[in-house]
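Cross-posted from the bioinformatics board.
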Amino acid sequence: MSQILKRYDLDKLAVATIASHTALQILRGAKKYGFRTIAIAKNEDIAQFYKQFFFIDEVWTGDFSNFRKTAERLVAENALLIPHGSYVEYVGWRQALEAPVPTLGCRELLRWEADQYKKMALLEEAGIPIPRVYRSPTEVDGPVIVKFFGAKGGRGYFVAKGREELEARLKALGEEYIIQEYLFGVPAYYHYFASPVYSRIEVFGADIRYESNVDGRTFGWAEPTFVVVGNLSLVLRESLLPIIHKYGVQFAKAVERRVGCRLAGPYCLESIIKDDMSIVVFEFSGRIVAGTNIYMGYGSPYSVLYFDKPMDMGERIAHEIREAAKAGKLDQLFT
Ligand code: ATP
């Protein structure tokens, strides 16, 4: 990718992403910083929605089952691709790993994220507390949550109170899954930004997911399910910020050690905070999470601490690209 980047005209850079997830804030931020912007939609209906916004210069429709062609077209257009959860879901992690277009962040992480066991091993390597992972249902001695491989926004996950219930439900499963200790406490998701330009990890914001049916009005009549329908704003107790920052830094170091690439751009640690205020991280995302949409347009509370002005994550990405391009450091951002 660094060869491709060398051929790019830095005065005519375009920022591109898939028209879904966090595309609006990514492209709005990019436009604000003077980049050309491209949204790639799944179909014509979605394209129509994105076409109404002044900050999107071009809306394409793309064939996600064969993303190579779109990637090549992006390179011809001098474009940098900002990956997000829907991109990985639509094109699949294998295509995303190999797409021949400069892509923000550490791509190799996709391989780790595709495997729930590797994912937890990386968090463990970072020295971050994680839930117990059971290799077999016979080890289970309390409430558990069963998760499938691949980011699905919580779809299909279920909880079981103990071993018997778990064994009965597992019989019907055909997919790969992981059994984790069910953690009691409140969920909290931390947004970070890894900056090669400023050589630092920033704590950027936090959110809570709004999930059906765990957050719904179920009166105990429906079974808990974890399908994400949106995100809610969260500001953390200030006393929690040092440890949250520390976990973010430890994670970045573990990625460098184990995965062999440096984190660049947004990433996220997803946790439960227990009633003793300890934090247990059950998941990470190596790229922008949809929870950052909560401060689109007016900026995250913590961005002010680094820049003395509010910025949303789309603007933060664009700022980094602009500064990296000036400093000849784009190859530290894009892989
Ligand atoms: P993403 O789209 O971020 O990849 P996902 O599909 O991998 O999400 P998770 O974030 O792992 O899903 O989990 C979905 C939800 O399940 C969480 O938001 C949280 O509410 C709940 N959850 C996950 N793991 C645990 C756990 N160990 N204990 C308690 N609740 C959990």
